[in-house]
Amino acid sequence: MFLSMRSDRVTQADRRARSRNALLESAARGLSRYGYGNLVLEQVATDAGYTRGALYHQFKDKQDLTLAVLEWILQTWTEEVGVLVEKESEPVAALLALARGHAVFCRRDIARVAVALRLEFSGQDHVIGRAVEDAYELLVKRCVRLINAGRKAGAIPPGPPTRSLALAFLGAFEGAVIALDGQAPHDELLAARAAAGVLGLDPLTATRRP
Predict the structure, then answer these.
(1) What is the arithmetic mean of pLDDT over 202-210?
(2) CA atoms of 167 and 198, how far apart (whole Å)
(3) What pTM was computed for the model?
(4) What is the distance between the alpha carbons of residues 8 and 29, in angstroms, rounded to a whole number?
(5) Does residue 13 have a pLDDT over 90?
(6) Rounded to an integer, what distance in angstroms lies between the CA atom of residue 195 and that of residue 45?
(7) Neighbours of 115 (CB within 10 A)
(8) Can you give the three-state secondary structure of 79-131, one letter per residue?
(9) Which residues are CB-neighbours of 71 under 8 A, at least 6 positions away?
């Protein structure tokens, strides 16, 4: 009997996790297509295959759901892109792995959420906008650390202030990814070349596979 009750609890937890992930993915698609202001929770639930009641059982309101989506996307990005960066011991290789990995990550609908929300809440003092900017700032700081390490090692030439270079680096490969939407595998290669050029490296040499 004890084992049966334990099994039931695990099953309920699994069901809750599955429904939460389905709702998060559905909300991410909705946010990327329609933005926060036009997101309809009932449609999010329907698209995920659940009722509106099931959604409210997991999330308090649209703001709570959107914050959860942002956290989920950041975690997913870390698991899929962040690990690629951590595997590289050389700063330049890590930066280019970030650009390539981000390009691959952005082939999925959910990757557009942060960009869509950043544009929607630009210039506004809103909890969603602040959450997006906080996440972006973490990425900027990560790039600043890698660029500083690359300059110290002599792999990245001196030039503009590190933070300015980090912002330009992010803008270069993000812009390439947006412009090349749906054009895999060229999006990955050209995002890396754009990033290498901003760093002051030879794009062809820096992005050549061993």
Answers:
(1) 85
(2) 10
(3) 0.86
(4) 32
(5) no
(6) 39
(7) 16
(8) HHHHHHHHHCCCHHHHHHHHHHHHHHHCCCHHHHHHHHHHHHCCCCCCHHHHH
(9) none
| Topology adopted by domain 61-206 | Tetracycline Repressor; domain 2 (1.10.357)
Question: Which tokens hold the place of 131?
Answer: 């959450």
| Degrees, nearest 5: CA angle 138-91-152 | 100
Q: According to the model, what pLDDT value does residue 110 have? A: 81
- pLDDT band for position 170 (50/70/90)? very high
Say what the alpha-carbon torsion angle 117, 118, 120, 123 is, to the nearest 10 degrees: 150
- Burial group, residue 157, by CB count within 10 angstroms (0-12, 13-18, 19+): exposed
pLDDT at 25: 93
Domain boundaries of the chain, sorted by first residue: 61-206
